[in-house]
């Protein structure tokens, strides 16, 4: 009989602990106290220079917030750090212009950023000729 009582007490303690843990999770989800759902976010503004840590301002009705953000130092400045593109392979080198071209299709626009659907990038052609046997030993002749 004492075993049943002990098991019942243990089950009640376990139930109380899980209920309390569930309450804590619900409280953490809504920590900012804002009920606004239509936030408009501005671009990420770096603290210094043109990349690195910075902040993004958001507004919703009468409320405003600042979020920390980061602009990678190798980002495509022309497109903005909030526009993510899927780029195809580089095209061949144009003998007339001396540049290669490739296009990118918009994959994701973060924070409702205004992004172009398709972008084009160019870069100078390489003067080096790349060998295909990079790091491989030649095949033995039999």
UniProtKB/TrEMBL annotation:
Keywords: Developmental protein, Disulfide bond, Growth factor, Heparin-binding, Mitogen, Secreted, Signal. It is found in: Secreted. PROSITE patterns: PTN_MK_1, PTN_MK_2. One of its GO terms (molecular function) is heparin binding. Residues 1-21 form the signal peptide. SMART domains: PTN (SM00193). One of its GO terms (biological process) is positive regulation of cell division. It comes from the Eukaryota. Gene3D superfamilies: Heparin-binding Growth Factor, Midkine, Chain A- C-terminal Domain (2.30.90.10), Pleiotrophin/Midkine, N-terminal domain (2.20.60.10). InterPro entries: Midkine_heparin-bd_GF, PTN/MK_C_dom, PTN/MK_C_dom_sf, PTN/MK_diS_sf, PTN/MK_N_dom, PTN/MK_N_dom_sf, PTN_MK_heparin-bd_GF_CS. Residues 23-79 form the Pleiotrophin/Midkine N-terminal domain. GO terms for cellular component: extracellular region. Its main location: secreted. Residues 80-136 form the Pleiotrophin/Midkine C-terminal domain. Secreted protein that functions as cytokine and growth factor and mediates its signal through cell-surface proteoglycan and non-proteoglycan receptors. Regulates many processes like inflammatory response, cell proliferation, cell adhesion, cell growth, cell survival, tissue regeneration, cell differentiation and cell migration. Belongs to the pleiotrophin family. This is Midkine. The lineage of its organism: Eukaryota, Metazoa, Chordata, Craniata, Vertebrata.
């Amino acid at each position: 009989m004492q075993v049943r009582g002990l098991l019942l007490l243990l089950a009640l303690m376990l139930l109380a602990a899980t209920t309390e843990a569930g309450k804590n999770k619900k409280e953490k989800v809504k920590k900012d106290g804002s009920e606004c759902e239509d936030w408009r976010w501005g671009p990420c503004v770096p603290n210094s220079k043109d990349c690195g840590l910075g902040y993004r301002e958001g507004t919703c009705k009468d409320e405003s917030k600042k979020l920390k953000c980061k602009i990678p130092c190798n980002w495509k400045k022309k497109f903005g750090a909030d526009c993510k593109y899927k780029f195809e392979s580089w095209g061949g080198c144009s003998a007339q212009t001396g540049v290669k071209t490739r296009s990118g299709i918009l994959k994701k626009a973060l924070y409702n950023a205004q992004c172009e659907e398709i972008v084009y990038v160019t870069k100078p052609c390489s003067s080096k000729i790349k060998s295909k046997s990079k790091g491989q030993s030649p095949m033995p002749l039999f």
